[in-house]
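During the second year of the project, the team shifted from modelling isolated chains to modelling whole assemblies. The rationale, set out in the original proposal, was that interfaces cannot be judged from single-chain predictions alone. As a representative example for this report, we include one of the complexes processed in the last quarter. Its constituent sequences, exactly as entered into the pipeline, are reproduced here:
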Amino acid sequence: MATTHVAAQEAEAPTEPQLVLNDLSIQVATVNGSGSQTANMVLLRSIFQMGIPVSGKNLFPSNIAGLPTWFTIRASKHGYIARRKEIDFLVAMNPETAEGDVRELRPGSAVVYDERLDLKRLRNDCVFYPVPFDALVAPVCPDAKLRKLVRNMIYDGVLARLLGIEMEEIQRALYKQFRKKVKAAELNFNAARAGYEFADKNLQKADRFALRRMDATRGKIIIDGNSAAALGAMFAGVTVVTWYPITPSSSLCETLIELMKRYRIDPETKKATFAIVQAEDELAAIGMALGAGWAGARSMTATAGPGISLMGEFAGFGYYAEIPAVIFNVQRVGPSTGLPTRTAQGDILSTAYLSHGDTMHPMLFPCSVEECYAMAVEAFDLAEGLQTPVFVMMDLDLGMNNWMADAFPYPEKPMARGKVLSKEDLDRLGHFERYRDVDGDGVGYRTLPGTDHPAAGYFTRGSGHDEKAHYTERPDDYVNNLDRLAHKFDTARNRVPSPVIQETAKSEVGIIAYGSSHWATLETLDQLKEEHDLDASYCRLRGFPFSHTVKDFIRRHERVYVVDQNRDAQMLHLLRLEVAPEDVKRLRSVRHYNGLPIDARSVTDSIVAQEGEK
Amino acid sequence: MATTATPPAPPKKVNRIGLEIGTYKGSKSTLCAGCGHNAISERIVEAFYELGVEPHRVAKLSGIGCSSKSPAYFLGSAYGLNAVHGRMPSIATGTMLANRTLMAIGVSGDGDSASIGIGQFVHLMRRNLPVIYIIEDNGVYGLTKGQFSATADIGSKLKTGVVNDLPAIDTCALAIQLGATYVARSFSGDKRQLLALVQGAIAHRGTSMLDVISPCVTFNDHEGSTKSYSYVKDHDEPLADVSFVPFFQDIGVDYDPGTTTEITMHDGSRMILKKLGTDYDPTNKVKALHVLTEAHEKNEVITGLFYVNTERENFLDLLNIVDEPLATLPESRVRPPKKVLDEVMEELR
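Output from the structure prediction step:
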């Protein structure tokens, strides 16, 4: 029986290959619907439990079963958690993609594969580890029907042996994953152990990669951005959630349903302190959210590009009638249906100006699961404070992938419900005018339906209205109202989360990034410094409308690279509209839009190339 | 000089909560003189006044169109929201989710509900949300100057001579089939019947759908129209003589057995349906749909209360929402304590 196929070592210069410790990326190629998710999560968690910084990206098709899917795990002692393009360790389980996957590897990479695929014939500069998966799974899983699902656990065991992942951690991660389903956990662990034992007896370690325990994940959690945002919404005190299923946002509301059922049932009456409704479409989802916001509830919906397009008309109504609501936009690849299961930041411009007429919306850009949580909390305060729909701009990478993070802090500030007049306020004031700018910030006072005062009622409309909320078509009324709304948007400038600026004295080069590009950008800053002696400044946008500090940042740098995960440099264009004409020339673009999570190398290469042309 | 004593002013007429009818009126209508919608607004004013509904508890909601303007013309001190075209149902749903103690009255038109908004219309009916849903039905788009709507009858003719060659959508039949629990059709010109039906809708806690034929005097009141005043007057076939007895009036009604059906509404009010010719049981869904289908075949405009179901759970009860408005629950009831966050964090470690 064949054991190890060692590639020609000549390709790798050192005769005594040095181990690359805690710095590798693993790619598992499977067929979707084959139950590989469990095996991959267990692998990710095991590495995490060994104290090694880790991240995982699921690259999956828009399909239920039978199409290729890849899961990449990156372990990095440096704490880099962006995707890395280069794969060190391939687990080839999918006959359809195996050959292509192997051909793309760099020399020196390792391949664990189903021996039937006979992949070693393809190259001689990689290390090949054939594994007889079917022969190994049969004895540990007598039930033939379950074998397809359990089979994947074998590669966990093989990798554990080859890379040094501790089997105790595999076991712990498995039992955590299966929670109370002890039998299933046991069955899966036996498969992992079979893989481990096979590798121990039959495979000779010939690659350079290894994982060893360190202490960089203590106290940390692993969570996806959608779940983090759901948690934020619950702690924000959301009461009305209306949604329509769409990838990649569905799991945000689904997780929220689970959380609310668990933690938001009134202990005395056993009734819900919330309402969650699956609407008939996105038009209804946002309509319900706005109806609820108008009536005073903290309301939200979650969607993605196609849903955002459908919500356009109502978004403009929310802006003009001044009704709070929070909309989570978990962006995916467009145009049209696009690539529904791939990531992008493609809705920046369309969301900023969503709807006809002069309409503008505040947007928040979380970059991490911590910020998905914290900005979800903040978004409700902002929406009610500004009396307008607020968009939380996530993306598929952030929303659906698992990320390592510090434990989330409990909200410090009490809920800020905005300018709402009570019956007592009206007793004191005598009357109120809904759209009058009393405080000079552009935000009027509102009353909530049900307020028992003869002066409380008013008429909300998407048609022309004056300060008293009366219908009007008078030119001066219209202009006054529109100008006040513009002034209110200016108020928002200082209320949305401020940018995080990391400035290097006298650097000519600045980078502007936002959302999930943050992690690749951090790594790029290191690469530029280490490889090109370029010390760049960094401004991470966290909110729109932009704070004035963003304009100042641009002015202080000769060349500012704006990192966008879209073809059209959407954030760059949004910035162009705000910066002084003489500063526009400073802006340069780094774009990444192939549907895969952005990686540092692509960003670095783009900047270096453009710096070379300067 | 003799002084004439000024006679004391007659006491102002007020309703059971001490409000005058003026409180229930709205601003002056900007619709055409003679528009059926104005008559409907008047009945709404009377119904809310007579039942003594507190205006601050009322949310008046609408979409876009002539009909959707009318919430401005009744209950001026109530809350109003004029939304986007065809989307009143979702606004109504959100409003009631946020504050279940409100009474929502949605006014829509045949274009607003049966065309652009039919998706939201059918789903609202299906949910049995507590809302009074009035379609002011004239078979044409008024604001855009007289195009056919989807409730126009087949064969009816526009002023321009264009003949409608598609069958009408019967919003009452749809509503009954989909799960609304109080479904009626009336005519803006039938003051008595319409008032009783609106009052019944106020007393009902579920979706009350009233399709009110409301002629458009400008674009659809001519020879050849089936939604004109004269056509409806000639073809109106009331199912029964409807009257309404509010819960706070202890009136015994005498009637011969077998001639009258009495229905007790959620608030204790009663609908009294006096037989006119045929037997009709408004709690029988199948019969209701049969009657409506038959009416179409005979080119009759059947009016009256077609269907009532006071048993079916409404959407808010189904969702098991707390009794108080969600909108104003205090932070202590909507933000779980720190130990909950700690517990969740521990599970994610």
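The CA atoms of residues 20 and 209 of chain A lie 5 Å apart. The first strand of chain A starts at residue 20 and ends at 21.
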